[in-house]
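Dear colleague,

As promised, here are the two records you asked about, laid out in our usual form so they can be pasted straight into your sheet.

NAME FIELD: protein one
SEQUENCE, THEN STRUCTURE:
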Amino acid sequence: MSQMHLSGQLVCRDRDQAAVVAEHLSDHVARTRAEPGCISFSVASTVDPLVWQVDECFQDSSALKAHQDRVAGSDWGRVTAGIERRYAIRGL
């Protein structure tokens, strides 16, 4: 099985959405990094205060799917549901 890489941006509509990301990000990152199969995971602010760079690497497609399933039911998934995601996945 090949590693799965996700890269892209989390694009906030306004400062309120950016504040939600900032408030909940550290918990989301910690939980994700603790997941089985997570090789690397980072979400970093950019020069645009409304855009966050997202880079993820998971052991295989099953680990990425498990991550996505966990996020869908998490606090992070709920509070960021309306925030645009522009992601590309490699390794499929």
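NAME FIELD: protein two
SEQUENCE, THEN STRUCTURE:
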Amino acid sequence: MCRLLLLSHSELSKSFYQTMELIMGKPSPKISYLTLPYGQDMDMYQQMVEEQVLESEDEGILILTDLFGGSPFMISTRVYEKYCKKISIEIICGMNLSMVVEVASALKQNLSLDVMKQIALDSGHKGIIDFSELLSNTLPKRKENEK
């Protein structure tokens, strides 16, 4: 079973974790999060990310970050470069709650890191819905004279 690490600016990853816990119950100990508060020392933050990655040495780790190009993402890419030859690491940015809940649920199935990554990508995309479009596709079409 791989590990799951949520990284974000401010308290977003903590909020995702807490909301996931509210929806699903007590999460697996294989799921963790790190927040990046304003003013946090980047070297210290990188060290904390490295510690999480090193704990996954035998299992691999899926890292979900909030924003492409943001500090949590950039730190995770540095950690990736440092450890990717000895630890299986996958990074996905743009995490959303649908993604977090689906990956956390799938984590219980002891799936490979590659499968977990695909679940994250698929559920992240499927979790973004244009309600107006959904509504217009499910309601009967109006005739011109009914408008």
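A couple of things worth noting about protein two: The chain has a mean pLDDT of 94. The first strand starts at residue 3 and ends at 9.

Best,
R.
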